[in-house]
Amino acid sequence: MATDYDKVYRDAKHALGAPTQQFVSFFEDYPKLAAKVLDVGCGQGRDALFIARLGHHVTAVDLSPSGIADLQAEADAEGLSIQAQVADICTYKPSQQYDVIVVDRVLHMLQKEQREAVLKTLCTATHPDSVILIADEPRNIAQFQAVFTQSAHTWVVLMQKRGFLFVQRGV
Question: In this model, does residue 1 exceed pLDDT 50?
Answer without folding.
Answer: no
